[in-house]
Structures
1.
Amino acid sequence: AQSVTQLDSQVPVFEEAPVELRCNYSSSVSVYLFWYVQYPNQGLQLLLKYLSGSTLVKGINGFEAEFNKSQTSFHLRKPSVHISDTAEYFCASNFGNEKLTFGTGTRLTIIP
Amino acid sequence: EAGVAQSPRYKIIEKRQSVAFWCNPISGHATLYWYQQILGQGPKLLIQFQNNGVVDDSQLPKDRFSAERLKGVDSTLKIQPAKLEDSAVYLCASSLKAGRGETQYFGPGTRLLVL
């Protein structure tokens, strides 16, 4: 079955420290991959997406992600986090069609 | 550019009552999506419209949920009758056109609590 897995439900990180949020997918077809961020009481906002080409994708707010086909992963990274990065982060994919399948989300908490 | 608008933002009802949510997508966006986001889970697609036609409603519980996009612009999602397990955030999203790589833009959602 095609799925998106976010292994960490919560990640606490000190301010100005680096962070990596993990995402793995399971699919027998080609995938497009997305990371969305959801701030409290707001809708989802696209951070970045991988469609094809370079496996390192840069997004907004200093985030980047690397597509690794052999590891079936699309981990999100930021070298130095800020208080304003506190939010829930969702990895998503469409598996051969237009429908987005989301992971269960990772809540990023920044510790001052 | 105005974003996706949704109303109401919050709704509390008792089980077996009916409720309706409204969504106005970004101007010019042909594709509209309704998602259900249960606490602790990622959003799950309920229905996708292309203009005023339904593209995918395979995960819409059709015995109680209905949705329409009559003029190909704004949309309404209805639940009748509501069950306790319908408590969730209902997100509307739109994209310029259909397609796997298209960015979906989300509204702020309607938080529904069924008592």
Note: The interface with chain B takes residues 4, 32, 36, 41-46, 49, 51, 90, 92, 94, 96-100, 102-105 of chain A (CB under 8 Å).
2.
Amino acid sequence: AQTVTQSQPEMSVQEAETVTLSCTYDTSESNYYLFWYKQPPSRQMILVIRQEAYKQQNATENRFSVNFQKAAKSFSLKISDSQLGDTAMYFCAFMNRGSQGNLIFGKGTKLSVKP
Amino acid sequence: NAGVTQTPKFQVLKTGQSMTLQCAQDMNHEYMSWYRQDPGMGLRLIHYSVGAGITDQGEVPNGYNVSRSTTEDFPLRLLSAAPSQTSVYFCASMGTLVGGPQETQYFGPGTRLLVL
């Protein structure tokens, strides 16, 4: 069975600085997707970034980028120029290519951005 | 598009009562899912559907029923509520949005359920 591990329950960063959230996963599959979701206090789940396993190039979305290491089964999220609005829970998630609708989530990292 | 909608936003039940959590999506997505979120846990899959008439169990299906009679709707039924079902419930659909990333799961706003 696939598992997703986020080893940092809580993190904090100063506004405008850079922070990296860690995620590791375990799978025997070769074709899959990885996601980072943000959950602010409103509880809404917001997609931050998405990576397809067959793509070697790391995904980027504005201030958000990932470091995808397929052999190490690692998928970390880097937030540059942190903003107060980035304060939220961040969840890493895994999905097999043939299991659409079935995401496996980590337990989350609570990120606080301090002014 | 309204995206994924859920009703109600909050509900209080007594042990043993039944209720249905509603979920609808207007994006013509094939795949729909129900998750529950408990404190200190990530989201865990309850049931999911790969199309109208087809459902399957996820990680924590006990105590819940689903059906999928249309592409748009995917209700979750609690047959006899228990305090252990106190949680926040998220419905999600997966597909492709025009101009958006492919095969991404989009979430509803959640339903907070309290079982006394």
Note: Chain A has a mean pLDDT of 94.
